[in-house]
Amino acid sequence: MDKQLGKKILELVGGEENVQSITHCATRLRMSFKDKSKVEDTAIGKLNGVLSTMEKGGQYQVVIGPAVDSVYKDVVANTKFESDSSGGGDSQEKKNIVTIFLDTVAGIFTPLLPLLAGSGVLRGIVLLLTQVGLLSDTSSTYTILTVSSTAVFYFLPILLAFTSAKKFGANQYVAVAIMGALIMPDFMNLMGDGGNGTVSSFIGIPVVLMGYSSTVIPAVLAVWCQSKLEKFLKKIIPLSLHLLFVSLITLLVMVPLTAIVFGPFGVYVGEAFANLVNALMSFNGWIAGAFIGGIWNVMVIFGLQWAVNPVMIQNISVLGFDKIVPLTGAANFGMAGAAMGTFLKTKDSEMKSFSFSALLSIFFAGITEPAIYGIAVKYKKPLIGAVIGGAAGGAFIGGMGVNAYAFVFGGLTTIPAFIGDTLVYYLIGLAICFVVGTIATIILGIDEDLEETSALSSVSKGNEVISLPISGDVIKLEDVKDEVFSSGAMGKGLAIIPDNGNLYAPFDGVVTMLFATKHAIGLTSDQGNEVLIHIGMDTVELNGELFTTYVKQGDKVKRGDRLISFDKDAISKKGYDLTTPIVITNAADKDIEFSKYGKMEQGIEIASIQ
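Structure tokens predicted for PTS system sucrose-specific EIIBCA component (610 residues):
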């Protein structure tokens, strides 16, 4: 499939300005236009990755297949539709507040991580050269290298404004201007010699002045508010006047509002949070070190580390050092030990090669994800070994009060970021983590024999059997009143006219697609067969009404687990055809044997895939 398929489709329908609305269901893009004459239907149909096109129910539909979600994202990327890209076909369920918070923090900080890491290593090198006498701290070279490595922290609110604006859907350049105004010398000079807390005024309103360079929270709060203001302004201001008045009013409102409200609030909250974490570290570094060093890799699995990263960045920006960063290094080297233990323990040549490459990834880049997901999660016991190693070395590092002077990922190449009085303790702690993690993993084992037995068992089964996911009248796929399915363009399969509203898993596997509209679900079996179940025709239009899901994307399911329920009678009364296709989307080269058609009960074997 063409990687630029989405953008080519957008161009051939007349561009963003010709599209009134766009969404997608389980198989196709659905669009409406201002001028249908601009749509080059024939050219779209010939694109690599487009199965067919059609017009139905007042919508222009481009049939893509299971890859429709990625194509949709390509279409809406960098367009006015991007902020609504969850649309009717987003596979995510409604998120709880914790998930939203973590996703938001990750989206804001991820783009800055390479810059933070590179600046941290450069800062460490400058400190090393200074300490060994190769660089004078009064030289111009020292000054140039120092500003090169610390600029990221001085201008951190501006950088965060830019990434926050992208995350919240605000104008990124206006966001930069808002935070840039608050670190301009003229604004800073209002404090005089009073420092933080000096009171000035704006049209008679008191302003508590703060220094905003190196701060984190004020930029995020300000840009979030900016995004809301811009959306409101775009609704009430005529389109022809957006260019001038949206940015004008946004700057006029947000710069004073940030200086009066969000800035001081963010500074005080950020300092309080950082002080709390630092107080916990100071209370008992041994216990805190063991806990953070041990639990950090588990936090990475669930993305929870994003809640702590801002604290570390804030500490380094404000205090010049941080005590949590060394503990994340401890966790990394505990995982490195688990990778080494796996390397020494495994009998599989491919796993031996993979574990060694995962080990190098940690040593030279401080990146643990290959080891976490490819070893620890896969075999389980190496994760325990990593936790033990990280906790052992983390206790020593925390107890000895090791400092980091830059925000970096713990690896061999980032050691310069720890150069100082506590460097030797950091190195000893890393050695403890690695050795203990390795030994613990070797002792615990990796249950590789069980993994091999499971794989052999799977292979010995030969055929994959698919059970009927819902009771009803089984018909041939070519009898479905939708040419996308009946033509076989989506793949081989059959369809069911359901007797009830309960859909069950047809095999053991994983939920790989679950649409927010709840009308379709994609499953991948343990043997790799991909199945799409589409409940009814055009039921995406119900936008999830009358459907209830019992699983979420990524869940493992067993044959017979309930997946979705729906109000069959109510959907039928609304005029929708409930014929439900079951399509094996990756079976073009596979031998599939279907059972007889007719009335059948849920759970009966309906297909066998060789």
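The mean pLDDT is 81.
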